[in-house]
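I'll show a sample.
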Amino acid sequence: MTSAVNTTQETDWRQALLTNREKTLEYLYARTYPVVLHYVKERHGREEDAKDVLQDAMILFFEKVVHDRLVLTAAPATYLVAICKNLWRQEREKRSRQVPLAIGYDLPAGETPEPETAQSADGLAEYVKRLGEKCQDILVRFYYFGQRLEQIAADHGYRNIRTATVQKFKCLERLRKAVSHLSVGHFGHFK
């Protein structure tokens, strides 16, 4: 590993990310993942949850460092672990607020819940449309059609897959914020 990766000065980390992004991010991931995994599992999470929060944290870290919006007062791995802890805490709070649809709803004898109505799917689609054409295209292609980010990046003229990943993340966050005030019942009801 280069000496730029082993130092904690912001300018060195920024330079390392700009000149050798992949190797620098791999180094940070390898140093941070075991701690994040332990933290998430101790708080009732799964390995996939740990990977998700670390990926989100690394995107935030990368953007802040590259755009000179971060002053590190600790080692980058320490900073990433702190972000992951906050993200996992937020995710746990969000999950605890979610109520499964079946809880507290008694169906009359012999009735079964109907599948999601077209109206509920249309409601969510309306929020996706409000994000704009680019976000709508990225999210629909990735989540609905299962298209790989490499193809999305190429079709949108992004320099690389990481740019597409960051854009997808930003679009998804905008969608989450747009629907965060709604309840589960807003998108689908049992009849």
Summary: The chain has two domains: 3-97, 118-185. The radius of gyration is 20 Å.
